[in-house]
Design goal:
It contains 14 helices and two strands. It is mainly α. A hairpin with a 2-residue loop joins strand 1 and strand 2.
Amino acid sequence: MEEESMEEEGGGEVMMDDQNHNNWGAGGYGRHLLGERLLPPAGPPPPAGPEHNGAGLRGCEPGAAAGRAGAAGAIAAINISASTSKFLMNVITIEDYKSTYWPKLDSAIDQLLTQSPGDYIPISYEQIYSCVYKCVCQQHSEQMYSDLIKKITNHLERVSKELQASPPDLYIERFNLALGQYMGALQSIVPLFIYMNKFYIETKLNRDLKDDLIKLFTEHVAEKHIYNLMPLLLEAQSTPFQITPSTMANIVKGLYTLRPEWVQMAPALFSKFIPNILPPAVESELQEYAAQDQKLQRELIQNGFTRGDQSRKRAGEELTYNGSSACASSRGCR
């Protein structure tokens, strides 16, 4: 009697509860939440009995009629389960990725690649980090990696074309700007994609994201300009302070990071900024080193630099005589 009164109060509908105790009846919360199109067509109600509970149909009574009713109820439960699982898990389809998630990442990468050193970028790092995390969890790592490489490659090709159009007197400064800007951008881009790096690039490709992105700059910018850049650097080296020492140091150290074998193109130039490039100094060459130091001192004086007081002058002459200045160079002594 008690069960009959409950059915009458419920309007004759059978209510199905999920594990969170949400009612998924034909006219209950489930229809409102998921919409008409996600709910299966109404079928025969599941048979009442001790084997039926709120989690769905676990068994069926013998007989053809009971079998058909049980099958229909099971299909309905499976359809509801699939629909609700997709809803609750917030599945990101490839269309969602292309229309919603990648555009956010694309815009953030643009800003990071084009910012000037020290600029504040008005983007939400937390939001971008979250986008990457969700896409990795939803198995979009391969597509995201492909899009990232394509995006940065296109940017570097534009940078290379701009450098090709630069006049010689601005070439070194613009290369330095492009190199510094890109390396600065990597300091933000690589951490933002740390989940993709950890669970896709390192695991499946056996590589590292930062190494891949540095290689892109080497291939699409540095390799295309090294033979134009190096003669200009050597010319600037022979004319003190034609470019600032910091610019020269940044470029030489950057080139060494990109491709260490480029040292062979100008060992003397690289040795001024990279330690242990040249072989150790030997005693038989101390006079040659002293002559090089004296030449540098003369050039400095010609450009307005003075030796200072007499005591410093005498100390400098003594150091030159003993060859100690050579020991302070990148060669060292033995």
